[in-house]
Amino acid sequence: MLCELFNVASSCYYEFKQRKPDASRIRLASQIKELFNMSRGSAGSRTLVSMLSEEGIKAGRFKVRQIMREADLMSKQPGSHRYRHAKVERPDIPNLLKREFSVSTPNRVWCGDITYIWSGSKWTYLAVVLDLFSRRVVGWSLSDKPDTELVSKALEMAWEQRGCPKNVMFHSDQGCQYSSRKYRQRLWRYRITQSMSRRGNCWDNAPMERLFRSLKTEWIPATGYLTQAQAKKDISHYLMSYYNRQRPHQANDGLSPVNAENRLKSVSGIC
């Protein structure tokens, strides 16, 4: 009688009663939601497929995208930005990197840059050092002043954490912090070769621009942080935990930076 009332075929009703829930799909949906929430809503279907793969779960992008649509999960998408182009190099610190961002081994090329973050009632400045081999953050520093001390602390952290390496090239923009005498003396002390982008050309330091874009669009709250201490704790978690150890990178064939370096160690036999 109800089937006739709602104009539903009785065979469809009995088929629906016999249908069993797909336990594996329910588990997969739960794992996708967990990873999506861990990324603070920034992971899309491609990223989620890579994250699931690192956990030993095989799932196609179409299936993940379908589950995301069913669960109403929509990833954050950064807006477009128009970049300027320039060709002016510093004669004393040339652009040695020349956009050769593919590096075969760790501790050969590091990149650095500074960005600003709102915390409390003022700007807080973040300096980061990135290893181009795996796109791993190897040093960072936070301060309320965008001075040479800020970038020096980030470099010192990278140099110590990576075991005081030799024959490293450090690339940055032409900011006064990186071209200051104090910073250049620090590079000379560490026996690090300095390279600088052309003036106003952010494409010469694209990996750093990509890192800061990911940080601001994926992680930092739209209204900023309440205090600098809160900003330091949350940004530290993003850089050293989520970004380095969990977030997949296309440059690493879908592996996180730490897993990419571990893969190199296992292949080459490096301890």
Automatic annotation (TrEMBL):
Entry-linked InterPro entries: HTH-like_dom, Integrase_cat-core, RNaseH-like_sf, RNaseH_sf, Transpos_IS3, Transposase_IS3/IS150/IS904
Parts of the chain that traverse the membrane: none
One GO term (biological process): DNA integration
GO molecular-function terms, A-Z: nucleic acid binding
Domain Integrase catalytic, first and last residues per copy: 102-265
N-terminal signal peptide: none
NCBIfam families linked: transpos_IS3
Name this protein carries in UniProt: Transposase
Species in which this protein is naturally found: Vibrio coralliirubri
UniProt lineage: Bacteria, Pseudomonadati, Pseudomonadota, Gammaproteobacteria, Vibrionales
